[in-house]
Design a protein that fits this description.
This protein is 38% helix and 27% strand. The protein contains 14 helices and 15 strands.
Amino acid sequence: MNTELLEALTILEQEKDISKETLLDAIENSLINACKNHFGRTDNIKVIMNRETCEYSLFAEKTVVEEVEDDLLEISLANAKMIDSKFELGDIVQIPIESKSFGRIATQNAKNLILQKIREEERKVVYDQYFEKEKDIVTGIVQRYVGKNISIDLGKADAMLTENEQVKGEVFKPTERIKLYVVEVKNTTKGPKILVSRTHPELVKRLFEAEVAEVKEGIVEIKSIAREAGSRTKIAVWSNDPNVDPVGACVGMNGSRVGAVVSELRGEKIDIINWSDNPAILIENALSPAKVISVMADPDEKTASVIVPDYQLSLAIGKEGQNARLAARLTGYKIDIKSESQAIESGELPENYMDMGMEEYQEEMTGDEFDEQ
């Protein structure tokens, strides 16, 4: 038994996660390659390897002829008889080849071929491992800044957090552990190229899956996400179980669950709202925390006209339009927001609306889109 080779292959299989079969194939190919470098051809070279013991033999198959014209492919009848008296013309004789007879260059080339195969398999194993994590989150350790990009240690591979995928204002220290969303994993000749992100909306979804058991189990669904990384995120949630409050499940007791996500996102604000198949109700919820008087939604045009109290207009629009912008992304509707006064001027509200009051006005309106949550 070739004990040393067997032990070496076992260690490689355990440490590098490369199958022994793959390594044995590489050794066979390297032996064939060494023969080609030594003899100039391998048409008649055969390798016989015992996969259990790692014992191997090399043979050159030669045809028995009366007169030898090519000593690489043929053997004389007289010489064949010296090996075994039973050989006759036309028979195939297996002549053992001693690998020790290979020249230095042939041996070095065989060694390089094996090492190359090991490196290729290492890269493939790492690629497969991280390809499975594509569209998921991983934990990485900050190594160093490379210009404006950040080198991240993911364990068996490194990733580069580019400037475009960083949240403005976030600064990391070396050895700091952070959560990242794996956007894409590419296979290259230098190993897997892993694109990670801290700005991707799906990062928020995956963090909630990690913190909220109901989301991970599918009882609570995150139907839509709108995010302005580093500032605010809105998520719309729905429960498949009438006994489970989706917003409450995501918030957690005393805000513990959403608090853990906010902490990982370095203080990013998160609004959690109830999802509704009714676009008017969904839009009203999406504009939270602002109060809404009415919503007129057009599902075909994907547009909506929203009226809010005068004192709620700035809240509904948000700082630099952020609340309205996120609500539009969350719902997929182009939202036009007007105050009571503006709506009266445009004729969307009756002139006596102020005297009627909101509740009286809504009682006169028809359609579920004006129902309060």
